[in-house]
Amino acid sequence: MTIPTVELPSGVHMPTFGIGTWRMGEDRRRRKDETDAIRHGVDLGFTLIDTAEMYGDGGAEEAIADAIAGRRDGLFIVSKVYPHNASRRGAVAACERSLKRLRIERIDLYLLHWIGSVPFEETIAAFQKLKDDGKIGDWGVSNFDVDDLQSWHAKDGGRCATNQVMFNLARRGVEFDLLPWMRQRRMPLMAYSPFDQGPLARHRTLKAIADRHGATPAQIALAWLLQLPGVVAIPKSADKGRLSENFAALKVKLTDADLAELDRAFPPPRNKRSLSIV
Ligand code: NAP
């Protein structure tokens, strides 16, 4: 199964499905299992891996390095800078540390993890320098609501590649205005916490739909995100079996009746709701 791609404003194609790594790299005793799981994900065909300097204090990036050693080509690596490191010099130094831990020459997409106190102009200048030096491919942001994204977008000349936010069936707030705003600008939305960090993988309605497809509730949660234009899903699992299960969600095609049932159980937003920040 090949993963579909979506075009970034830069013209680069980004996979619409990837591996999340939050909570990885935190405990040395779990490192080998985590590395094996990521490697298994790449064996399955996952080509996008999402991480951050924050995850395991760099430990997740190190686990990824071990998992992708010798097979970096064809992979799309996303990492994030802490807001307190996002100054003109700080972001360059943080990116260089991430590259060293990842043992790669270039991060494909580098995101500001959430808004801090550093002016956007400074972070954008750092991102531009990193791009000019070939250390990142594209840049973007995370946990931005429409107003902040508008302000960032005006300052970076529309080069922002994505906004990574919490988006799943149980948290559909972004559909009200953020997702339409991003679609108008052909900017894909990266949806994190596709299982709402677990509960959706056990939900009754999803189970009923899953049974009709010979699938699992987790696969229905992913299939719902994957059928939305301009949306990228990044489920996390440190378990090989669940990674295989998640990858196979690509095969699940939801019907109009399934989608209507999901809308009844998880109504789309009728008014503006704020985003959840990590
Ligand atoms: P998630 O992917 O919704 O849920 C992860 C949880 O679901 C883990 O406990 C995992 O356990 C379990 N799980 C995975 N596959 C499963 C399956 N098939 N059946 C049942 N349970 C399953 O939550 P998330 O980790 O918050 O979000 C995904 C990724 O998005 C993160 O890892 C990170 O890369 C990114 N993220 C970004 C931000 C941000 O601020 N930008 C914030 C949060 C997350 P096992 O590992 O044991 O399988």
Structure description:
The chain is of the alpha/beta class. Helices cover 38% and strands 15% of the residues. It has helices at 31-44, 59-68, 88-102, 120-132, 146-155, 178-184, 204-213, 217-226, 240-247, 256-265, and strands spanning 5-7, 13-15, 18-20, 48-50, 76-81, 107-112, 136-142, 163-166, 189-192, 231-233. It has an eight-stranded parallel beta sheet with strand order 3-4-5-6-7-8-9-10. Strands 1-2 form a two-stranded antiparallel sheet. Helix 1 runs parallel beside helix 9 (240-247) and helix 3 crosses helix 4 (120-132). The longest helix is centred in the middle third of the chain and has 15 residues, at 88-102. The site of NADP nicotinamide-adenine-dinucleotide phosphate has 27 residues, from helix 9.
